[in-house]
Protein backbone atom coordinates (compact mmCIF):
# COMPACT_ATOMS: atom_id res chain seq x y z
CA UNK A 1 0.00 0.00 0.00
CA UNK A 2 1.39 3.44 -0.82
CA UNK A 3 0.01 5.44 2.10
CA UNK A 4 3.41 6.18 3.64
CA UNK A 5 3.13 3.58 6.42
CA UNK A 6 5.63 0.76 6.85
CA UNK A 7 3.74 -2.35 5.64
CA UNK A 8 5.98 -4.77 7.54
CA UNK A 9 5.49 -2.94 10.81
CA UNK A 10 1.78 -2.56 10.08
CA UNK A 11 1.47 -6.34 9.60
CA UNK A 12 3.37 -7.02 12.84
CA UNK A 13 1.09 -4.60 14.68
CA UNK A 14 -2.03 -6.24 13.24
CA UNK A 15 -0.64 -9.66 14.19
CA UNK A 16 -0.06 -8.81 17.87
CA UNK A 17 -3.43 -7.08 18.20
CA UNK A 18 -5.15 -10.03 16.50
CA UNK A 19 -3.35 -12.48 18.80
CA UNK A 20 -4.61 -10.51 21.80
CA UNK A 21 -8.12 -10.55 20.36
CA UNK A 22 -7.93 -14.37 20.18
CA UNK A 23 -6.55 -14.38 23.77
CA UNK A 24 -3.43 -16.09 22.42
CA UNK A 25 -0.91 -14.89 25.00
CA UNK A 26 1.93 -16.90 23.47
CA UNK A 27 1.52 -15.43 19.95
CA UNK A 28 1.05 -11.96 21.43
CA UNK A 29 4.25 -12.21 23.46
CA UNK A 30 6.15 -13.62 20.47
CA UNK A 31 5.37 -10.44 18.54
CA UNK A 32 7.45 -8.56 21.08
CA UNK A 33 10.04 -11.23 21.88
CA UNK A 34 11.02 -11.29 18.21
CA UNK A 35 11.88 -7.58 18.30
CA UNK A 36 15.57 -8.35 17.89
CA UNK A 37 14.73 -8.81 14.21
CA UNK A 38 13.80 -5.11 14.04
CA UNK A 39 15.88 -1.98 14.07
CA UNK A 40 15.40 0.46 16.94
CA UNK A 41 13.52 2.73 14.54
CA UNK A 42 11.17 -0.09 13.48
CA UNK A 43 10.48 -0.98 17.11
CA UNK A 44 9.67 2.62 17.88
CA UNK A 45 7.45 2.83 14.78
CA UNK A 46 5.49 -0.22 15.95
CA UNK A 47 5.08 1.36 19.39
CA UNK A 48 3.77 4.54 17.80
CA UNK A 49 1.35 2.63 15.56
CA UNK A 50 -0.07 0.61 18.46
CA UNK A 51 -0.42 3.59 20.77
CA UNK A 52 -2.06 5.70 18.07
CA UNK A 53 -4.51 2.92 17.20
CA UNK A 54 -5.47 2.37 20.84
CA UNK A 55 -5.90 6.12 21.33
CA UNK A 56 -8.01 6.33 18.17
CA UNK A 57 -10.25 3.46 19.29
CA UNK A 58 -10.68 4.95 22.76
CA UNK A 59 -11.40 8.37 21.29
CA UNK A 60 -14.16 6.84 19.14
CA UNK A 61 -15.79 5.36 22.23
CA UNK A 62 -15.25 8.32 24.55
CA UNK A 63 -15.95 11.05 21.98
CA UNK A 64 -13.30 13.28 23.53
CA UNK A 65 -14.49 12.91 27.14
CA UNK A 66 -11.40 11.47 28.84
CA UNK A 67 -12.68 11.80 32.40
CA UNK A 68 -10.89 9.39 34.74
CA UNK A 69 -14.17 7.68 35.62
CA UNK A 70 -14.81 6.90 31.95
CA UNK A 71 -11.30 5.49 31.44
CA UNK A 72 -11.69 3.36 34.57
CA UNK A 73 -15.09 2.09 33.38
CA UNK A 74 -13.55 0.87 30.11
CA UNK A 75 -10.60 -0.62 32.00
CA UNK A 76 -12.96 -2.48 34.34
CA UNK A 77 -14.95 -3.78 31.39
CA UNK A 78 -11.97 -5.21 29.50
CA UNK A 79 -9.62 -6.12 32.35
CA UNK A 80 -10.65 -9.78 32.73
CA UNK A 81 -10.13 -10.48 29.02
CA UNK A 82 -6.95 -8.40 28.83
CA UNK A 83 -5.59 -10.31 31.82
CA UNK A 84 -5.74 -13.51 29.74
CA UNK A 85 -3.08 -11.98 27.48
CA UNK A 86 -1.01 -9.77 29.80
CA UNK A 87 -1.26 -9.16 33.51
CA UNK A 88 -2.67 -5.68 33.96
CA UNK A 89 -5.03 -4.45 36.64
CA UNK A 90 -7.56 -1.64 36.18
CA UNK A 91 -5.26 1.22 37.29
CA UNK A 92 -2.53 0.01 34.92
CA UNK A 93 -4.98 -0.19 32.02
CA UNK A 94 -6.23 3.33 32.79
CA UNK A 95 -2.63 4.57 32.79
CA UNK A 96 -1.97 2.97 29.40
CA UNK A 97 -5.20 4.54 28.10
CA UNK A 98 -4.04 7.97 29.27
CA UNK A 99 -0.74 7.42 27.49
CA UNK A 100 -2.48 6.44 24.25
CA UNK A 101 -4.79 9.46 24.49
CA UNK A 102 -1.91 11.83 25.24
CA UNK A 103 -3.27 12.84 28.66
CA UNK A 104 -0.79 11.31 31.14
CA UNK A 105 -1.13 11.89 34.87
CA UNK A 106 1.88 13.22 36.80
CA UNK A 107 2.23 9.96 38.73
CA UNK A 108 2.14 7.62 35.69
CA UNK A 109 5.09 5.23 35.75
CA UNK A 110 4.61 2.65 32.98
CA UNK A 111 6.94 3.11 30.01
CA UNK A 112 8.52 1.28 27.12
CA UNK A 113 7.66 -2.18 25.94
CA UNK A 114 5.43 -2.84 28.96
CA UNK A 115 3.14 -0.07 27.71
CA UNK A 116 3.14 -1.60 24.23
CA UNK A 117 2.34 -5.09 25.49
CA UNK A 118 -0.59 -3.79 27.48
CA UNK A 119 -1.78 -1.33 24.82
CA UNK A 120 -1.82 -3.97 22.08
CA UNK A 121 -3.61 -6.44 24.36
CA UNK A 122 -6.21 -3.85 25.35
CA UNK A 123 -6.76 -2.88 21.73
CA UNK A 124 -7.21 -6.51 20.74
CA UNK A 125 -9.84 -6.96 23.44
CA UNK A 126 -11.65 -3.73 22.51
CA UNK A 127 -11.99 -4.68 18.84
CA UNK A 128 -14.78 -6.99 17.70
CA UNK A 129 -13.11 -7.99 14.40
CA UNK A 130 -9.50 -6.73 14.30
CA UNK A 131 -8.60 -7.16 10.62
CA UNK A 132 -11.33 -4.96 9.12
CA UNK A 133 -11.43 -2.55 12.06
CA UNK A 134 -7.68 -1.98 11.92
CA UNK A 135 -7.84 -1.67 8.13
CA UNK A 136 -10.47 1.04 8.60
CA UNK A 137 -8.17 2.87 11.06
CA UNK A 138 -5.12 2.66 8.80
CA UNK A 139 -6.02 5.75 6.72
CA UNK A 140 -6.33 7.79 9.93
CA UNK A 141 -2.92 6.57 11.07
CA UNK A 142 -1.46 7.39 7.65
CA UNK A 143 -2.91 10.91 7.79
CA UNK A 144 -1.53 11.36 11.30
CA UNK A 145 1.91 10.19 10.15
CA UNK A 146 1.82 12.48 7.11
CA UNK A 147 0.76 15.48 9.21
CA UNK A 148 3.39 14.91 11.92
CA UNK A 149 6.08 13.28 9.77
CA UNK A 150 9.08 15.24 11.01
CA UNK A 151 8.21 14.92 14.71
CA UNK A 152 7.39 11.22 14.37
CA UNK A 153 10.63 10.50 12.50
CA UNK A 154 12.47 12.25 15.33
CA UNK A 155 10.66 10.02 17.85
CA UNK A 156 11.48 6.92 15.83
CA UNK A 157 15.14 7.93 15.70
CA UNK A 158 15.25 8.59 19.43
CA UNK A 159 14.46 4.92 20.12
What this model shows, in words?
The structure is a single chain. This protein has eight helices and no strands. By secondary structure, it is an all-alpha fold. The protein has one domain. Helix 3 packs across helix 5, helix 3 crosses helix 6 and helix 4 crosses helix 5. It starts with 6 loop residues before the first helix and ends with a helix.
List the main descriptive attributes of the protein structure presented here.
159 residues, mainly alpha, single chain
Residue runs with pLDDT of under 50 for 5 or more positions: none
> What is the count of helical runs?
8
The whole-number mean of residue pLDDT values reads 91
DSSP strand tally: 0
Outline the biggest β-sheet: none
Strand content: under 5%
Gyration radius, rounded: 15 Å
Distance between the termini: 25 Å
How many domains? The number is 1
The global form is: globular
Helicity range of the residues? over 70%
Listing every helix as H and every strand as E from the N terminus to the C terminus, the arrangement reads HHHHHHHH
Quickly describe the structure:
The protein is mainly alpha-helical and 159 residues long. The protein is 73% helix and 0% strand. It has helices at residues 7-21, 25-33, 40-62, 68-82, 90-101, 113-126, 130-147, 149-158.
